[in-house]
TrEMBL record:
<dbReference type="InterPro" id="IPR012910">
    <property type="entry name" value="Plug_dom"/>
</dbReference>
<dbReference type="InterPro" id="IPR036942">
    <property type="entry name" value="Beta-barrel_TonB_sf"/>
</dbReference>
<keyword id="KW-0675">Receptor</keyword>
<keyword id="KW-0812">Transmembrane</keyword>
<dbReference type="InterPro" id="IPR037066">
    <property type="entry name" value="Plug_dom_sf"/>
</dbReference>
<dbReference type="GO" id="GO:0015344">
    <property type="term" value="F:siderophore uptake transmembrane transporter activity"/>
</dbReference>
<keyword id="KW-0732">Signal</keyword>
<dbReference type="InterPro" id="IPR039426">
    <property type="entry name" value="TonB-dep_rcpt-like"/>
</dbReference>
<keyword id="KW-0472">Membrane</keyword>
<feature type="domain" description="TonB-dependent receptor plug">
    <location>
        <begin position="31"/>
        <end position="126"/>
    </location>
</feature>
<dbReference type="GO" id="GO:0044718">
    <property type="term" value="P:siderophore transmembrane transport"/>
</dbReference>
<keyword id="KW-0813">Transport</keyword>
<keyword id="KW-0998">Cell outer membrane</keyword>
<dbReference type="GO" id="GO:0009279">
    <property type="term" value="C:cell outer membrane"/>
</dbReference>
<keyword id="KW-1134">Transmembrane beta strand</keyword>
<protein>
    <submittedName>
        <fullName>TonB-dependent receptor</fullName>
    </submittedName>
</protein>
<comment type="similarity">
    <text>Belongs to the TonB-dependent receptor family.</text>
</comment>
Amino acid sequence: MHLGDTLELNVVEVKGPDLEKYAAGQQLLRLQEKDLQDFRGDALTEVLQRRTGLFLRQHGPGMLASLTMRGTSAGHNAVFWNGLPINSPSLGQADFSILPTAAIDQVDIHLGSSGALYGTDAIGGAVHLGTRQLFNQGHRLEVGSVLGSFGRWDRSLAYSYSNQAFSTKTRAYRQHSRNDFPFRNLSRINTPIERMPNGEVTQQGFLQDLAWNISIRQQLHVAIWYNEADRQIIPIIGSNTQDQQQDRNLRAMLDYLHFEGKNTWNVKAGIVFDELIFNIAAVNKTQQYFLSGELDRNWNDRQSSRTGFRLTQIDGQLDTYEAQEQRWELYHSQKILPSPHLTLTANLRQFVYDGNWAPFTPSIGGDWNFLRTANQKLSLGFAAARSFKVPTLNDRFWNPGGNPDLLPEDSYSSEISLQQELTTNGFAIKQHLTLYRMWVDNWIIWLPRGNIWSPENIRSVINSGLEYRAQVEKKMGANHWSFTGIYNWVQAINQTNSSANDQSKGNQLPYTPEHKVMGTLDWQRNSWSAFLSSHWVSERFVATDNQLSVAPYELVDIGFRYQFNFLNTKKLNAGFHINNLLDKEYHIMRLRPMPGRNYQFNCTITL
């Protein structure tokens, strides 16, 4: 090589877990970068509700948002950030309204029962959030802002630097909305249009990512994320409450990887501190400490395995009690390729909490590519799994009413899927159809017992459903078109009555829509891009007796984006969105109104 030659350095990314490796027969959805860009400044709630076909129970814009997957409850979905479980140990779930997209680089959604892979909570599925670190990128500064209806103003700032051995990224954000959208007050005569009086939301936080290529065999990643949210809680129609809630969340992790021949060693340590203050007086704090290690080995071209452990210490100082919990879990995964067209995986996990043994959790799955031609590929998938959810701290220790004798919720599931990839007449088509069935026993519900409420393992539920996803892409000259369509059908049927007067057996679970349909049309031409998106949600029953329901609704959104490149590597991204284009009046939860037509303008400058 001569002095005048240019040495091209490869872009190297911080290594992360391969979520698909031991999940044969199940579907993993990965949100594209453009999806997160379209919703930059929004909470993760909006991306999932409008792009994935999943349903979130939103109590209003910026308010509590809980995810339901395949008809399960909010606590039946495991949520991870850079591999750390971040579900609240006291509530047993995550609030997606305080997970801003400004702090997230990648989102992977594992559909279906996956307790053997991820541990407790993953009865309906799992959501993996992560930050992305690149090497050999030099200096980069990104400034962003979003202006929108109802007093919305978001700001973000990010700086990164990386060379071949070191990478750092620092970002900060602040988001604010008066949230004073007009709504129809159904509790008053003539149902006048009024402004929402108590809905202001402010959220801010920062992230720090550091990564080192210690050597060609070693990599270290450190990440810290602090987020705080101050919210006025929107009252239900007819109520004049002025509740307030403050959330403070600190997450930090250290991830060490060592590559040695066929082996990859991984050691991870982390903390998750959560604080929730309701109306100033009720203070709830939890601290989680994690330590895990695993070995992933590729034995040969046809066989690999992963073996590991995770230790968790939980400390809770809640409004009515204090508690501690210790957890340990061991797991093993195996992948075998009996032939080039067949992949089989098996997973085992044992989880113990405070000396209580959770159900032993196995799963199996397979993918069979039974047809492959020059322009088409067909594959068949199957999976069967057992999953579980341990009782939350509130379930066991709340004073008064907690029940320390509760059993873990226990589930069995099976699914079969068919996938097609086809190229014809310039169209690239992908289709995926899944049929599933799930049995959940020992479902925990709170019931009145005298003057207090107490949780019991009462409910049994059978969930059945169908998921269909199609993506069609076509290039026509300089125009690139793509369409994504999703249909989800869910039946979550209660199998038990909780009392002699209960008539809920055979009914759909509350706030579990039987149907959801979504379609998104994307267009791109050079620096211009646009999207038109719509989703329709069927009625949701308010209670287990299925006597009262919330009306179906359909939303249409439209957006435009322009990218202007200047000075070779600099760029400006500007976008304009109209949400709820048809100005529909709708509620996701009963008596909790959502905004009508609203607008937002976003701009990001990258230097």
